[in-house]
Amino acid sequence: MGTQIKDVVMKADAPSTLLLDKHADYIAAYGSKKDDYEYTLSEYLRMSGIYWGLTVMDLMGQLSRMSKDEIIEFIKSCQHDCGGISASIGHDPHLLYTLSAVQILSLYDSLSVIDTDKVVEYVKSLQQEDGSFAGDKWGEIDTRFSFCAAATLALLGKLDAINIDKAVEFVLSCMNFDGGFGCRPGSESHAGQIYCCTGFLSITNQLHHVNADLLGWWLCERQLPSGGLNGRPEKLPDVCYSWWVLASLKIIKRIHWIDKNKLRSFILACQDEETGGFADRPGDMVDPFHTLFGIAGLSLLGDEHIKPVNPVFCMPEEVLQRMNVHPEILN
Amino acid sequence: MHGRIKLKTTEEQAEQKQKERLKKLHFYDTTRSACFAKRKAGILDEEGLILSGQLLAANPDFATLWNFRREIFLHLKEEKTPEELQTLFEKELSFLETCLRVNPKSYGTWHHRGWVLDHSPSPDWKVELELCSKFLQFDERNFHCWDYRRLVVQRAEVSPQEELEFTHKLIGTNFSNYSSWHYRSTLLPLVYPDTECRVGRADEEALLTEYELVQNALFTDPNDQSAWFYYRWLLGRADREETVSCLYISREGQRLIVSFSHPVNVLLPKDELILFVDGLPLRVTWKSPHPQLKRSAIWICELPPNTINAACSEHNFKVHWQDGRIQRECILYKGRSESWCRDSATDQQLFRCDLSVEKTTVLQSELNSCTQLQELEPDNKWCALTIILLMRALDPLGYEKEMLQCFQTLKATDPMRTAYFDDLLSKFIIENSILKMEYAESRVVDLSKKNLTNLCHLDQMQLVTHMNLTSNRLKSLPIHLSMMQCLEVLEASDNEIECLEGLVQLPRLQEISLQNNRISKICDLRPLASCPSLILLNLKGNPITEVPDFQSELSELLPSLKDLIV
């Protein structure tokens, strides 16, 4: 016996136009409910939450509505003596939130407010002998952290601080039979991980190691009849996977292998017409994470109401141009 | 937030919910503050475990609290007796199991479990293996659990053979288990290593048994993609060994071209390429055919004047690569204008699969079963695609007609992936054309009217002098076209070409037909200025011909052009 194909049914009355103003209002209001239970409970990822909110606002041309000074003060108070940055005050530093903080400061062109030399030292200290990166001093190894390390350093213009050859070697050791990548050597391929690894190889100029035809096939097979993309075979579609798959396809120059119109309809159907924001699937609860990846996905699909997004850093192209950071795209 | 359905609530319900939330918020706030205060004060005791446990049970992604627990354990290790410690660690494991039942997909929980086991006085990895099997029964695709299992397997020294049997059992219950097929792809080469020591490939006999298992899966549930993905891998081939595949010398052009099996950067010290002429090293400057190709399968050097002497009966050219481990040699005889030495695509079976010739009967029987399956399931795209791959593994030229038919089926049954199928078909057609050209010992390639959407394998065509791409659906002449260093005539009329970025520094290119394409700006033609031999250019039926002053601008750009057809 086997498993039935999982997918969602697209309803005829689902939203089909882009509700930009509502999304901007949703994000602007999100951070103001600081006593809210859900908001408080997500403090362990606050720094990433802020990155998601600010990036989507910037992509919609609404960054000025966010409280820049307050956010910059917050980031400053999250940098630790070791150089690493934590999700929130009182939490421990981690590569995930170090990257988010550096991304936020890049949007604001304010990298100098933190001690960037110490950030570089922190990232460097987490590289292991086999080239991999631990997320923090407790030693969890994951290719997500290889991406965080390379992306952070690239934004700081200090990529040469780490052993790049070894780092590349480790990421390549996580490549699988299907051309995809997993968390660690031997781990199953997963769209989020593929995004991290192709992004890492793009930043380090090593995309020629990717079997683009094989990986591109696996990625375009993530598209389901509803038009949405899943993250692994036999899984449900999700707006965030739409981003990870789409960005990976863009990096390996195969974005035309999916049906763009159908994906666009799926992403639009995940909007909440009442509250603004995007959910993982039509009819679910919205959140800033899926709102960013919905908007960023539409940008990659060529929506002209949104600023062009960079597929590797998930930041506006104009920001990376300004910083002179040019990750490789396969030719 | 994943999979949380938005529900309509009444005012009363909302008020009730709000009250509960406030209560929960208060509990969260006080407990978190208590944990942080203890930690700040350096109090690392069992109460810290209780407090942080209350939060982590509901919110396992609160990473800092796992760190707090680890600090407590490291501290208690100094204080407690081994017996007391053992009890504490056991309690932690059962707490973790409860957490995993509530949230089996939390990175932090699984990582902490591995940490606890690694620091436990007497870890029982066998019990952990059973735990993994149990959690994989709840969800056979939980990649966190699979990854934890691989850690346990390593620590408990479980053999790959046993793990292979485990995946076999899971696949037996449900063929549609991508995680298990994936695991097999890593285990098979360990249990049955390839006799030729190719990394990541399995022994031929093992591959054949594996085909049978997959066939079972395919016939049971032909619409399940997992087994088809795995099958495609089984039918694939090992990576080619890195080598210098061709050495070409042009007397007239005073240049030498080296081709590699893979894109390389010979400007890097580790990939240094050294040229010897008549036994003596010669310092030359290598360049790739296109400035954007930092890595390239083709590298070119101009020979210093007088390197080639017309009176000399022969010149011996030789390149050393990778410290001389890889070499290739070619002789240019007196009176010859060019010379080359290369591996051929037909000899190397470049476009076929790993199985030896003796085993192709097996592939034939695989093809027969897939054809049977297709009769039962005429609309199954996976089956149609696999048939194409099998036919290509067996005899790419012999099955060309059938392959084209199968592609029609594919596009009709899976219109969402039309662009993928178009590009794949383009690739196969180009492969076949290369084979035909080599069998005919010709340097002319006719790819007209093939519905091509994409150009690839251009590094295999570096000796081609005439290429016909008329009447396809090409949107560009990509930068890889610059590898066709011998190209003299290019026919590319009736396409959708907007950009010519690949027509760069092609020393022998004389004629280009680009009738009825979409070239609209003079700057799109700029690459042609770097092709010194160009004398004929046909731009009839392109938007650019409507641009005022276009002809005068063009003659400025291409002063040596003799025939411009508009």
UniProtKB/TrEMBL annotation, chain A:
GO CC annotations, alphabetized? Rab-protein geranylgeranyltransferase complex
Q: Which organism is it from?
A: Erpetoichthys calabaricus
Oligomeric state and interaction partners are given as: Heterotrimer composed of RABGGTA, RABGGTB and CHM; within this trimer, RABGGTA and RABGGTB form the catalytic component B, while CHM (component A) mediates peptide substrate binding. The Rab GGTase dimer (RGGT) interacts with CHM (component A) prior to Rab protein binding; the association is stabilized by geranylgeranyl pyrophosphate (GGpp). The CHM:RGGT:Rab complex is destabilized by GGpp. Interaction of RABGGTB with prenylated PTP4A2 precludes its association with RABGGTA and inhibits enzyme activity. Interacts with CHODL.
Tell me the domain of life: Eukaryota
The UniProt function text for this chain reads: Catalyzes the transfer of a geranylgeranyl moiety from geranylgeranyl diphosphate to both cysteines of Rab proteins with the C-terminal sequence -XXCC, -XCXC and -CCXX, such as RAB1A, RAB3A, RAB5A and RAB7A.
* Protein keywords: Metal-binding, Phosphoprotein, Prenyltransferase, Repeat, Transferase, Zinc
- Classification via SUPFAM superfamilies: Terpenoid cyclases/Protein prenyltransferases
What InterPro entries does the database record attribute to this sequence? PGGT1B-like, Prenyltrans, Ptb1, Terpenoid_cyclase/PrenylTrfase
In the record, the note on similarity to other proteins reads:
Belongs to the protein prenyltransferase subunit beta family.
As its record notes, the protein acts as a catalyst of:
geranylgeranyl diphosphate + L-cysteinyl-[protein] = S-geranylgeranyl-L-cysteinyl-[protein] + diphosphate
Cofactor details (free text): Binds 1 zinc ion per subunit.
**What cofactor does this one take?**
Zn(2+)
Q: Which Gene3D superfamilies match?
A: 1.50.10.20
**Do the record's keywords include Transferase?**
yes
Q: What is this protein called?
A: Geranylgeranyl transferase type-2 subunit beta
Which segments constitute the Prenyltransferase alpha-alpha toroid domain?
Answer: 18-315
From TrEMBL, chain B:
Q: Which SMART domains match?
A: LRR_SD22 (SM00365)
The entry lists its GO molecular-function terms as: Rab geranylgeranyltransferase activity; zinc ion binding
| GO CC entries | Rab-protein geranylgeranyltransferase complex
Would I find rRNA-binding among this entry's keywords? no
Q: Which residues form the Rab geranylgeranyltransferase alpha subunit insert-domain domain?
A: 244-345
Which Enzyme Commission numbers does its entry carry?
2.5.1.60
- Listed InterPro entries: Leu-rich_rpt, Leu-rich_rpt_4, LRR_dom_sf, Prenyl_trans_a, RabGGT_asu_insert-dom_sf, RabGGT_asu_insert-domain
Keywords recorded for this protein, A-Z? Leucine-rich repeat, Phosphoprotein, Prenyltransferase, Repeat, Transferase
Catalytic reaction list: geranylgeranyl diphosphate + L-cysteinyl-[protein] = S-geranylgeranyl-L-cysteinyl-[protein] + diphosphate
Query: Biological process GO annotation list?
Result: prenylation
One Pfam family per UniProt: PPTA
Please state which protein family the record places this protein in: Belongs to the protein prenyltransferase subunit alpha family.
This molecule's function is given as:
Catalyzes the transfer of a geranylgeranyl moiety from geranylgeranyl diphosphate to both cysteines of Rab proteins with the C-terminal sequence -XXCC, -XCXC and -CCXX, such as RAB1A, RAB3A, RAB5A and RAB7A.
- Tell me the PANTHER family matching this sequence: GERANYLGERANYL TRANSFERASE TYPE-2 SUBUNIT ALPHA, PROTEIN FARNESYLTRANSFERASE ALPHA SUBUNIT/RAB GERANYLGERANYL TRANSFERASE ALPHA SUBUNIT
Q: What is this protein called?
A: Geranylgeranyl transferase type-2 subunit alpha
Gene name, Swiss-Prot/TrEMBL: RABGGTA
